[in-house]
Amino acid sequence: MANEEDDPIIQEIDVFLARSLLEKLYLFQYPIRPASMTYDDVTHLSAKIKPKQQKVELEMAIDTLNPNYCRSKGEQIALNVDGTCTDETSTYSSKLMDKQTFCSSQAASNVSRYAAAVYKKGELHLTPLHGILQLRPSFTYLDKADAKHREREAANEGGDSSQDEAEDDVKQITVRFSRPETEQARQRRVQSYEFLQKRQAEEHWVHLHYYGLKDSRSEHERQYLFSQGHGLAENTELIKSPSEYLMMLMPPSVEEENDKPMAPSNVLSMAQLRTLPLADQIKILMKNVKVMPFANLMSLLGSGTDPTAVLRCVQQVALLVQGNWVVKSDVLYPKDTSSPHSGVPAEVLCRGRDFVMWKFTQDRWVVRKEVAAVTKLCPEDVKDFLEHMSVARINKGWEFMLPYDEDFVKKHPDIVQRQQMLWMGIQAKLEKVYNLLKEHLTPKKQEAQSAHQLLVSGEQRVNMAKAKVKQNYGQLEKEFQKQKAEMKSNDPSAKTDFPNIRIKEEPVSVEEPMDTSALEGLNNGLVNGLHPAQGSSEPVNGHLPGGCIDRVAQELKAFVSSTFKKQFVLTLSELKRLFNLHLASLPPGHTLFSGISDKMLQDMVLDTGCKQILVPFPPQTAASPDELKVYALWEAGDTYDQHRQVLLEIFSKNYRVRRNVIQNQLSQECGEDLNKQEVDRVLK
């Protein structure tokens, strides 16, 4: 107790377990370098990996202009390795040792005790490591130099052989047929060192693309180091009640478990289900039911269950579609499994089912032939996907099996908003994998109208019209009384009379014309259960509320400035992608969620000192209009401003320019001769 008083607790930190990069995150340990050189300055020429062996090879450029570099030694090594001739097979094409290869070896066989940690805003996010690899310099170029040396010596010793010596003597050969290999001999051969080396050599290299620390894709991948719950302790492994924690420390004995009656493996009673942790209960229920409203899920979990904890757990195993929860594809199709119909691996099945789920976030109807044409899967697999979440209608297609859950959407706008961001990421992946066209991205008008009629009955239309008339009448009367009171308070001596002012009183009847404008967005524009007009901070007719304009402009300007200081040149398409990623990292209710149009974003880019570069792309290009709009930071305040401006003017005249033309133009305009590294830095 005395020690505890001397060492008080200063701060408690919430710990979250991130699973987005599970079995994908590696730790690379580089060799020690001088303190003046960091790996951000090193240029990665190429990288490749053998995933099964966890073997990596990196090829890095050597700074030959560094004063510590011995040029004569580099030329000698290149000469020994490649000889005097230079061709495509040469290791060093510049006749100088200007690169070095690093090979990896496993630093630890068991890495389950290690994790990468990120600390942000009082939260510690942990991601388990899949491997720890130590990179060491590879000296295979010395073996190549020795082979060249032996070849030269053999050529010198052999000399010109005569024709008689060149002719081989005729020799008798004996042909033998090998006996069948026994099982014991085969096992010895499989376990031999030569066989294992051959198996490792047969695995193909997977070439990788290296992205720098400040690249936008690196920033995108770093977001996966944070827990997807964004401030919610979604990982049930870290949330245990005292009784559950005691059960983990002292599990029940084996004899007690054997006394329980045996049940079929695919049957689980509700009594047994409620003995499991909450996360396992939700996973089992969603895996069996597949589609469920939140209210039904709460009723199955029993009274006294915390809705907040249920929301944390259900987001791990399900996605929100039209206000209802649909089980995730990777829960139904785990890794290393395949389709029982076609044998297609689980990864392909998950992509196809995600496409079906995404289509239902856009519309209530899905056509089976369209899904099969896009996913290229067999009809049986597509039918399984549709039967999980929809019902077949004759001559219409497949309709989502549950009605739109308006109550859940109104009660939990933050969950709906977070799910919408997840669907935006899934849509981007599907567009890249399936090359989706515009007809796939937008719901058909006829289908939207039919779903609209199914959702809203005539009685509902009448009731909503009545409520709107009453609301308008009450608002007009309140405004009139307010104006009347203000005029009396401003001039108390004056006797104000309003004989000619009357509020038009219209009878509320069924025969009056209905205003159905409130119903327009009920089904059309439905994205993951979120209406476009929902929320008080949404723009009205393209304009933000007056009090929010300044704050939104400041936040938008800060984002644009910081982005262009890192990237310098961006297309409108890439800028919008980065802005959506930025929105996904913001907390719910942030001012930027009020709605930012493309025009507002482009105007802010021009206001922050950037210019649009009119690059003359070829007319037959397949790029989208947003990809053809190029913006660049004109003045960054560094020593390369003039060089960048010259380079941007060059690209405003031609979309493809040779490197020597760029270097000559930079030298003429700037009045100085730039070396290769300086030109590379400007181009980068």
From TrEMBL:
It comes from the Eukaryota. Residues 146-169 are annotated as: Disordered. Residues 146-155 have a biased composition (Basic and acidic residues). Coiled coil: none annotated. InterPro entries: RNA_pol_III_Rpc5 (IPR006886), RPC5_C (IPR045576). Residues 444-684 form the DNA-directed RNA polymerase III subunit RPC5 C-terminal domain. GO terms for cellular component: RNA polymerase III complex. Pfam families: RPC5 (PF04801), RPC5_C (PF19725). GO terms for biological process: tRNA transcription by RNA polymerase III. This is RPC5 polymerase.
